[in-house]
Amino acid sequence: MKHARGLILGAALAAVALPAFAQSVAIGAMEERLRERGLSGSGSYDILESLTTEVGPRPAGSPAIARAKDWAMAKMTSLGFSNVHAEPYSIWAWFKGVETAEVTDPFPQPMVITGLGGSVATPPGGLEAEIVLFPTFEALASAPANSLTGKIAVLTEHMGPNDSATGYGTANRWRRRGASEAAKRGAVGFMLRSLATNNVRQPHSGAMNYEEGLPKIPAAALSGPDADQLERMARRGKPIKVKFTLLPTYLPQATTWNVVGEIPGSATPDEVVLVSGHMDSWGLGTGAIDDGAGVAITMAAAHLAGERHPRRTIRMVLWGAEETDQAGDAYAKAHAADASKIVIAGESDFGAQHVMYFQTPAGSQDLPAIKTLTEALKPLGVTYNREPSKFGGDDIGHLVSLGVPQLSMRQEGAHYFDIHHSAEDTLDKVDPAEMDKATAVWAATIYALAQSGVDFRKAAPAKP
Length: 464
Known about the structure:
Order of helices and strands: HHHHHEEEEHEHEEHEEHEHEEHEHEHHEE
CATH topology of the largest domain: Aminopeptidase
Number of strands: 16
Structural class: alpha/beta
Helix content: 25-40%
CATH superfamily of the largest domain: Zn peptidases
CATH architecture of the largest domain: 3-Layer(aba) Sandwich
CATH class of the largest domain: Alpha Beta
Number of domains: 2
Strand content: 15-25%
Distance between the termini: 39 Å
């Protein structure tokens, strides 16, 4: 299997690098090199195994993210990146502590929760109150003023598949805003059904936000089976009391890093193709799919593309605080003056499965470089979506605000939200063959963009 994956990767890169009439000759001339590459695969799984084994979970601002920074610098250096360095910045940090929950009346029994990132703590002895269940976020947001005074609001709405009306893009709003909507109505605590596409008893964490001027109340994700249990209890018609305890650590100031390495361009080194993944993770699992896989896929792909010595510089950025929304902003502020040199930017942050389709900036759909890349990726089952790319990753969004064009790679993710932000996010969920497929696509794409003379801001060939 490794030999076959290496051949596919090499063929894809060769197809991008050369005109169609020369492809067969080039692949023949590269046979030995492709064979050797096939013996070792793309290398991305080995990078992921190293990160998750040697560092483990990596909350932003923690000692673990400092170890991840050192790991990243050593790994990029070993792969031949130059100008490898860490860019520190100050953030707020939040780490999980004691997390317990139980029904205390009328049917006493334990429940499973996890705190939402950024939540305030409960009193040390916990918070106990009657609950009010809401079947939808809209029902909570339309509840009368003062209707939740002294109570715990519990949102039990199910998140749907990613492309549905209640997929992650919508459900993320429930998690972000739910506590403040409850606080507006007098609630002393908030829980929501874990944002997941399965119903296992492993709740998923994730960031939440407090609205200015409102009380900050403790907020937690409740496992799906426990949310179902509360709904069944409620149908008995008796008031339900719940007690939960969250004792996280909040640091108003901590340090994290974006780690950067480059492969200098052979002809136009001042033009930069930026690719990235985020090092940080929540503390429940080991961050294998979110986003150790993205780190490994783009790092391996950039290394492989760089071996072909493309014209433009390839810049690898490993973000240090994506989960708490602080990495991309820090990088954009630090690099605002030279953002015009970044010709395009992309981020891998959707697991370890194969790429289904890709998108490029408006106006570039019919350019020769994009057509050539599209043809090169067809053997890997990848299609080109002609809709202009509108989302290339959370962290690069801040660069997009500075005018940087973005690349969008859409990976298969039917089960991504079964795992992400939970204790199930571990290496055993990753298929090395799928990672190799994703890496092959990223490698071919990175090379095509770095070898191209396309000015994506103008979406027209800038050089012959």
